[in-house]
């Protein structure tokens, strides 16, 4: 059975994903959509801003869990394709937040506080560590050369751009083709 607080967060999550203007969202509207009274919202959150803030933290934790799912056993290609598929999954679910995680454009997302910024920085650091491990595997597998320091930015831009295009259905490919294409382009940059 879904808890009341979870119902409230679920309603706010749906508004975030729909791109609603959260400034115009009222507690009455949230309560109505969650099938609860407005006073019940105040039992869980002091204000609308706190409710939205907690919802963003919930989303960040959820996406971090997906993005940092244990890597599969396999070679560089398999691990990179797996990681790209996780990014695509999250990107489809929350393009705005994922863009902030991948591109460090934290200030462009409304309602993000210092706590959110710190959480995003932790996720970014964990993602950098993860990609470094995958790259090390690629070097050991003789799939890529040792990346130069500046490759990080090109790789981020390539992954963010191509995966976002696929999430928006702009690439005219199925997901497997898009992931393979992205992997091929990454290998060209890293060789």
What do these coordinates show?
- The chain has 191 residues and is an all-alpha fold.
- It is elongated and about 60 Å long.
- Helix 5 (76-93) runs antiparallel to helix 7, helix 5 (76-93) packs across helix 9 (175-189) and helix 8 (151-167) packs antiparallel against helix 9 (175-189).
- The chain contains nine helices and no strands.
- The chain has two domains: 4-45, Arc Repressor Mutant, subunit A (Orthogonal Bundle), CATH 1.10.10; 58-189, Tetracycline Repressor, domain 2 (Orthogonal Bundle).
- The chain has helices at residues 4-17, 27-33, 38-44, 48-67, 76-93, 95-103, 114-140, 151-167, 175-189.
What descriptive keywords fit this protein?
191 residues, mainly alpha, Tetracycline Repressor, domain 2, 0% strand
Give the % helix: over 70%
| Broad structural category | mainly alpha
Please indicate the percent range of residues in DSSP E strands (runs of 2 or more): under 5%
**CATH-defined architecture of the largest domain:** Orthogonal Bundle
Following the backbone from N to C, one meets helices and strands in this order, namely HHHHHHHHH
> What's the Cα radius of gyration?
19 Å
The CATH topology of the largest domain is Tetracycline Repressor, domain 2
Q: Can you tell me the number of structural domains?
A: 2
The CA-CA distance between the termini, in Å, is 52 Å
E-strand count: 0
CATH class of the largest domain: Mainly Alpha
- Unreliable stretches (pLDDT < 50, length at least 5) are none
Round the mean pLDDT to the nearest integer and report it. 87
Discrete helix count: 9
GO molecular function: DNA binding
Pfam family, one: TetR_N
InterPro entries: Homeodomain-like_sf, HTH-type_Tx_Regulator, HTH_TetR
Keywords: DNA-binding
């Amino acid at each position: 059975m879904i808890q009341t607080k979870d119902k409230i967060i679920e309603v706010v999550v749906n508004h975030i994903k729909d791109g609603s203007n959260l400034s115009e969202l009222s507690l009455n509207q949230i309560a109505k959509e969650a099938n609860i009274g407005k006073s019940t919202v105040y039992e869980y959150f002091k204000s609308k801003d706190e409710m939205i803030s907690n919802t963003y933290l919930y989303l960040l934790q959820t996406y971090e869990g997906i993005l940092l799912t244990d890597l599969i056993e396999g070679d560089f290609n398999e691990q990179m394709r797996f990681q790209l598929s996780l990014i695509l999954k999250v990107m489809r679910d929350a393009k705005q937040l994922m863009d902030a995680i991948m591109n460090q454009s934290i200030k462009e997302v409304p309602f993000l506080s210092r706590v959110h910024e710190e959480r995003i920085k932790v996720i970014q650091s964990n993602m950098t560590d993860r990609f470094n491990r995958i790259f090390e595997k690629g070097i050991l597998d003789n799939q890529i050369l040792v990346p130069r320091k500046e490759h990080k930015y090109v790789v981020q831009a390539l992954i963010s751009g191509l995966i976002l295009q696929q999430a928006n259905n702009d690439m005219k490919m199925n997901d497997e083709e898009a992931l393979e294409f992205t992997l091929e382009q990454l290998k060209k940059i890293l060789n």
